[in-house]
Structures are given as structure tokens and as C-alpha cells.
Design a protein that fits this description.
single chain; 231 residues; mainly alpha; three-stranded antiparallel sheet
């Protein structure tokens, strides 16, 4: 699976290259220790080396590659890296949902349920990219609606990495255990209902449960390729 072209509207060539390479690294197509050649990548994408350098800087900033004189060395996503990514996401969502207590969340809940509806349609049609995008949009909506500038800045710094991990995990889930995606939809509905009631305790419980289950799913799918490189 290639990075969805519909997600790249308005992106620079360097951003497009970064998105494709990021997905290759997350999926294990570019294994840890692999040296990425600027010349080869430029040839593969039919471009000059300048956009490739732009892409390399982005991926280096995300910790997926290490820039060296001989080229860029793939680091990838280790189990520890993935744990940290989930830790930060859970902390962010724990924080932002507290801002929804004692307020009217009806408009946000309607928006979230609309996204869940789209997830159901995507699941029916086995549309991996659409399911991933709507799942991501659900979580991003919580962050955006909270209106916390610094939290949003932190989220934006991880945005592409989170989206790509979700895409890779959804691809694996659809191929091996699609029932998990049905469970994901049900849990999102439950969360939206709790948000509608502004139940802080229930929201916190659901967030912890969601990220525990998501960690397990990612460990069984996305990280399997990383473990193979160590065996």
C-alpha cells in the first residue's frame, strides 16, 4: 500500500516524499540500519535532491532516521518509541477531555458521531485509508476543540507520525483481524456518549482502555516487522 494521494493535496514535493518514506519505515519496508541514498530516492521519485533533503530533515526530526555523511540511516519505530508515542497521546487526551466537563458538548458529539458513521461505511467497503483517516480525525477533533495552543503545537509535531502509524495498523487489522475494527467503532460510540454526558471519570476510563487495546493491536501488527529484523 502506498501513501494515499488524497491525503497529499497542497503538500510540497518534499512533504510527499517524507510521507511515502515514513510509511515504508513504519511498515518495515525500510528496515533499521538501512542506508537511504539521496540520489536513489531522487531517481525513484523523479526529482532533484533538494526535495529529498527536505524530506530527510523531517524524518530525522521525527526520530525515524539518523543523518550521517554517507547518507541517512533508518532507525525506525522501536517498541519503546511506540510506547512513548502512545504515552503522549494518552496524556494529551486525558488533559483535553477535562476541558469538556461542565459544558455543552452536543455540537462536538454530533461531529464525532458523523466521523464514526464514516468509519462504519469505510469498514463495510474495506476502505483502509478512509477508515484510518476518520479514526484519526476523531482524536484530532478532541484536541482541536479543546482550544489549547501549546497542546495543539505538541500534537501537530506528531501529527503525521500518528496518522501513518494508524494507517499501517489499520492495513494489518483489515488483513488479519477485521473484527477489531468493529470493536474500535463501538468504543468510539461509547466514548462519544460519555462525552455527551460530560462524565469525566468514565471518559478517563475509556481513554485508558482505548490506548491499552490500541497498544496491544499495534504490538501485534505494526511492530512485528521490527521484531523480525532483530531475530
Amino acid at each position: 500500500m502506498k501513501y494515499p494521494t488524497t491525503w497529499l493535496q497542497g503538500a510540497s514535493l518534499g512533504e510527499r516524499i517524507a510521507c511515502e518514506l515514513r510509511l515504508q519505515i513504519i511498515r518495515g519496508m525500510q528496515t533499521p540500519g538501512t542506508v537511504l541514498s539521496e540520489n536513489q530516492i531522487a531517481t525513484d521519485f523523479g526529482t532533484s535532491r533538494s526535495p529529498v533533503r527536505e524530506a530527510m530533515k523531517v524524518l530525522s526530526g521525527e526520530g525515524l532516521i539518523r543523518l550521517e555523511r554517507m547518507g541517512a540511516v533508518v532507525i525506525g519505530m522501536t517498541p519503546g518509541d511506540m510506547e512513548e508515542l502512545f504515552d503522549v497521546r494518552m496524556l494529551i487526551e486525558h488533559f483535553v477531555v477535562q476541558r469538556y466537563v461542565h459544558r455543552d458538548n452536543s455540537i462536538l458529539v454530533t461531529t464525532l458521531n458523523h466521523m464514526i458513521d464514516k468509519m462504519e461505511v469505510a469498514l463495510k467497503h474495506r476502505a483502509i485509508a478512509e477508515f484510518s483517516l476518520q479514526d484519526f480525525n476523531f482524536h484530532e477533533a478532541l484536541v482541536l476543540e479543546a482550544g489549547h495552543t501549546r497542546i495543539l503545537h505538541t500534537w501537530n509535531g506528531m501529527r503525521q507520525l500518528i496518522l501513518t502509524v494508524m494507517l499501517a495498523a489499520t492495513e494489518q487489522r483489515f488483513a488479519s483481524n477485521i473484527e477489531e475494527s468493529q470493536v474500535t467503532i463501538r468504543k468510539h460510540r461509547t466514548f462519544a456518549n460519555a462525552l455527551n454526558q460530560a462524565n469525566a471519570q468514565e471518559l478517563s476510563r475509556l481513554i485508558e482502555e482505548h490506548y491499552r487495546d490500541t497498544r496491544n493491536a499495534v504490538n501485534d501488527s505494526v511492530l512485528s516487522s521490527y521484531r523480525k529484523t532483530l531475530s
